[in-house]
Amino acid sequence: MAHTTARLALSLFASLLLAACAHQPPDASHDARAWSDAGQLVLVTSADWNATAAELRRFERVDGRWVQVGETAPVVLGRSGSGWGIGLNPPRSDGPNKREGDGRAPAGVFTIGTAFGYSERATTGLHYQAMTGNDWCIDVPASAYYNRIVDRSVIKAPLLDQSSEPMRRDIHVDGDQRYREGFVIEHNLDGQQRQGGSCIFAHLWKDPQTTTAGCTAMAPASMDALLAWLDKRKHPVFVLLPTPQYLALKADWHLPEITAAEATR
To answer: Which end of the chain is flanked by fewer CB atoms within 10 Å, N or C?
Structure first.
């Protein structure tokens, strides 16, 4: 009887332990495994979810720790601020979520994709694609090519004519130079979530006061330095976070150390 009672008690204890473990909050440090091979990190921090101004820093991993490279640069975000995007980190609910047309820049951790521009070539370690007057990024959720840059002279499909994102804005939008240099931030890759948001880039700003539709924009000198530094062989990632989320997640997500004052400056 004593042995039976002991076994029952042990079984009950094990069941309670398993139930307790099942209700533990997820370990955010596991999220960081998705970008553990990153040797370069672009960090953008803003004051809060509604802030449209932010600061950009770039970091290189040296002996297992992040070391800042170059100076901090001002950038502008979407007209509505920022909201959680669809990238390398799991979905989160502690803030707004990015949706198509909402004017928010995606927050989270993202792979850096192809660099692009108006010139035939660029000084960068990223793969580079020279844009033509036929290249458009499709921002129509109903399209099979949603959130992809396509050559409209080659690809013929319904709804392409509804896209509002020509990649040669100088040709189609009164000489606009904002896409003269930039790179793709791989939010909602291949349009995996319809209405999740599309055509998210880092590109040149019109001026320091003009916000974007959801991209991160900066001065030409800042973009030149960033493109020349980025190297696809180092698996660079782009991180955008409001300061409260950055401070809460930096340890678990293995992000660079900057002070709260620096993050909100």
So the answer is: N
The single-letter DSSP state of residue 87 is S
Q: How many residues does the chain have?
A: 265
The residue type of 223 is M
Alpha-carbon span 14 to 123, nearest angstrom: 60
* 157 contacts 144 by C-beta, under 8 angstroms: yes
121 pLDDT higher than 50: yes
d(CA 49, CA 83): 7
Q: How many CB atoms lie within 10 A of CB 219?
A: 15
Integer CA distances (angstroms), 112 to 22, 32, 47, 105, 262, in order: 35, 16, 23, 15, 24
Give per-residue pLDDT as tens, 191-236.
999 999 999 999 999 999 999 999 999 999 999 999 999 999 999 9
Quote the pTM value. Answer: 0.88
Handedness of CA 39, 45, 50, 53 (dihedral sign): negative
Alpha carbons 72 and 181: distance in angstroms, whole number: 19
Element (H, E) at 55: strand 53-62
Q: Which amino acid is at 201?
A: F
Bridge partners (DSSP) of residue 239 are 43, 109
Cα(209)–Cα(14) distance, integer angstroms: 59
The contacts of residue 38 (CB under 8 Å, 6+ apart) are 61, 234, 235, 236, 237
Cα 54 versus chain centre, distance: 14
Identify whether the C-beta of residue 224 lies closer than 8 Å to the C-beta of residue 181: yes
For residue 237, the surrounding DSSP H or E stretch is strand 237-242
User: In this structure, what token pair is assigned to residue 95?
Assistant: 């803030």
Q: Which residue has the tokens 């539709």?
A: 213
